[in-house]
Amino acid sequence: MLERIIREIRQCLEKDCLLAGLALALTLPDICGKAEYPSLGVGARYIRWYNENVGITEKPPKSTQSDTEMPYLSGEVVYSLRCQFLHQGTPNIEVEKIKEAACKIDDFTLMLQKKNSLDIYSDSAAVFSCGTDPDGKNPIHQLRSYEVNVRRLCLILCACAEGYYKENADKFNFFQYEIVDADERQEQFLSEHPEARDFDWGNALMETIKDMEA
Question: Measuring CA to CA, which of 4, 135, 188, 205 is 20 to 30 A from 12?
Fold first, then answer.
């Protein structure tokens, strides 16, 4: 099932249905988190799986200890986006529910972009300082902004979930479902009963209706 979801996310991206792709992509840490941490609550396993498999490469490095902590797509941020977007259709985050100071993003923006020849995309982050303390060294307030490229987020979530699934397929035994492909089922029926291909189903239906009305 996970592979099918990933395939359909990529189909959304190919057709520039980016918000539809994002909605599906944001469920991937839910699914993988359940596989890895079945005993944890939904939010806890979502954030933990994301941080260990995706967020670890999203956090920007610091050149020196005094460098400003830049905002990034942490597990808390992506989980907040997931809750806001999937539950109420708002593609934003709830800053007050995010604990990590660096990720308390004041201005969170989604960026939609068509596919480019390299299929490489980037986000942007910034921190603006407003005023300084009496010593003139430390800012009194910092305004944090983050612009997430929807196509990029979908791609990295797909890649990480796909890689995790290939190494841990045995952990996904909780999938219990049945999906029927009507076209495939019809084609199978016609292959087993070739005479049905030439049968006039429309005329037969009309005759049945006439009989019922008589």
Answer: 188
Distance separating alpha carbons of residues 103 and 71, to the nearest angstrom: 5
Q: Do the Cβ atoms of 46 and 176 come closer than 8 Å?
A: no
CA angle 43, 44, 48 (to 5 degrees): 115
Is residue 11 over pLDDT 70?
yes
Predicted model pTM: 0.81
The residue extents of the domains of the chain are: 2-179, 181-214
Q: At 21, which helix (H) or strand (E)? A: helix 18-25
Q: What is the DSSP letter of 61?
A: P
- Residue type (1 letter), 202: G
Give the span between the Cα atoms of 128 and 197, in whole angstroms: 69
CA dist 76 and 43 (Å) reads 9
